[in-house]
Specification:
single chain; 409 residues; Dna Ligase, domain 1; alpha+beta; 14 strands; D-amino Acid Aminotransferase, Chain A, domain 1
Length: 409
């Protein structure tokens, strides 16, 4: 479900492991999946919401009804996760649907609700205050900001946020003053957003303090894969802030055990992805959110030897996953590969100079790195030119936005 870089990464994983071509269904087609030999994309207007989604999936299901092979549904965006889980009882009559029920999705997909559950399981997260539309209507000047500036501000409802447009809109905001806070909150609600906002104590430090964890939990609610990534650089473009563009593999058994306990306790199923940041003030990793899908940059997992496609196949098709032990990724530094989502030059110019960058440069020098979209077995001139151009555009993005959105952190 979808057509972005996440979709291409999963299609590539299936192709590398099983030699099969994937079919993607989406409302529009994005550049990462264009001109590809490993994934076919079919688009349907309005497919990213009901009734367009279920109407088209009802027709699509008929194609697969009499096939001898099982087809696995993989949702590659928050909205698609919500739609697939909402219609799970219908979809699983035809497809393998490795997702939790809609009731649990509703508890986890909202950042606000996730923090409440995190508190129940002693999972650390940034100090948080919830702002409602009613708070704004009572006067933005009356909203208390209990943390020192800068502060972090982001929407609780990521799906609704996709539909909100205004000058200065960002995926998340780092706000430096009270005047800026009042202005941004007003713009958000005046332009149609209705859900809550999350105001948080800003955890100091550059992008290299982030971590991203991808997991797979089997149908028996046992964690089978955990692979931790250490982002060194994020996209500074307003609409894409928080999207990782350089990731080192990392091993941390304490983090693995903490998250494994949580996932098994709530009876999770399927892929998930956690974003967290190291807080040097109390030496803990603070969780930002759980994504109920593999991460956008999750191909770094497959790149490092843990093919994401094989887990649902072994779970639901061959039935061999149940008896396998949990894989705690990245224990052997000799196997580490650097994942990049930008040109090498951009990484070298903008990533913070530290020991982690030094390690990344060593991997680059040793040719131990890779990307999601540049795949030798899917080469043609049209595709290569498009992906090369998409990478080239990052030069301008970083030049325009890095200092404003990522400087002085």
């Amino acid at each position: 479900m979808g057509s972005d870089i996440n979709v291409y990464g999963m299609a590539r994983a299936f192709y590398e492991r099983y030699g099969v071509k994937s079919t993607a269904y989406a409302s529009v087609q994005f550049a990462p999946t264009k001109y590809s030999k490993i994934v076919d994309v079919e688009t349907f207007p309005g497919f990213n919401e009901d009734p367009g989604f279920i109407e088209n999936m009802t027709k699509i299901a008929k194609r697969y009804k009499n096939l001898n092979k099982k087809a696995i549904l993989i949702a590659c965006g928050d909205g698609y996760v919500e739609l697939v889980s909402k219609h799970k009882s219908f979809l699983q009559k035809t497809f393998v649907v490795p997702y939790i029920d809609y009731t649990l999705v509703q508890k986890l997909i909202s950042k606000e609700a996730f923090y409440k559950i995190a508190d129940q399981y002693q999972l650390p997260h940034p100090a948080t205050k919830i702002i409602t539309k009613a708070d704004y209507q009572n006067g933005v000047a009356n909203i208390e900001v209990p943390y020192d500036f800068p502060v972090a501000l982001k929407p609780s409802d990521a799906v609704e946020w996709l539909e909100i447009k205004f000058a200065g809109r960002k995926k998340a905001f780092r706000i430096k003053s009270r005047a800026e806070f009042d202005d941004i909150v007003a713009k958000i609600y005046d332009n149609g957003y209705t859900a809550d906002l999350i105001l948080q104590d800003f955890i100091p430090g550059d992008d290299s303090n982030m971590r991203t964890l991808n997991c797979y939990v089997d149908q028996h609610h046992q964690v089978k894969l955990m692979c931790l990534g250490h982002p060194l650089l994020e996209d500074p473009t307003p609409a894409d802030i928080g999207n990782y563009v350089a990731i080192l593999p990392e091993y941390n058994q304490k983090v693995y055990q903490q998250i494994q306990h949580f996932l098994e306790a709530i009876h999770y199923t399927g892929y998930c992805n956690f974003d967290m940041k190291y807080d040097r003030r109390d030496k803990t990793f603070k969780l930002f959110e759980i994504n109920l899908r593999q991460g956008r940059s999750s191909f770094f997992v497959t790149l490092n030897g843990y093919n994401l496609a094989q887990y649902p196949v072994e779970d639901y098709i061959t039935g061999t996953l149940k008896d396998k032990p949990t894989v705690y990724g990245n224990q052997d530094p000799k196997r580490h590969q650097l994942w990049l989502g930008v040109p090498v030059k951009v990484f070298k110019t903008y990533a913070q100079n530290n020991a982690d960058k030094k390690r990344a440069l060593e991997l680059l020098a040793a040719k131990r790195f890779g990307t999601t979209v540049f795949f030798k077995q899917d080469f043609n001139l049209k595709r290569y030119a498009l992906q090369k151009y998409a990478f080239y555009l990052y030069n301008g993005r970083f030049k325009s936005y890095f200092k404003e959105n990522k400087g002085d952190m």
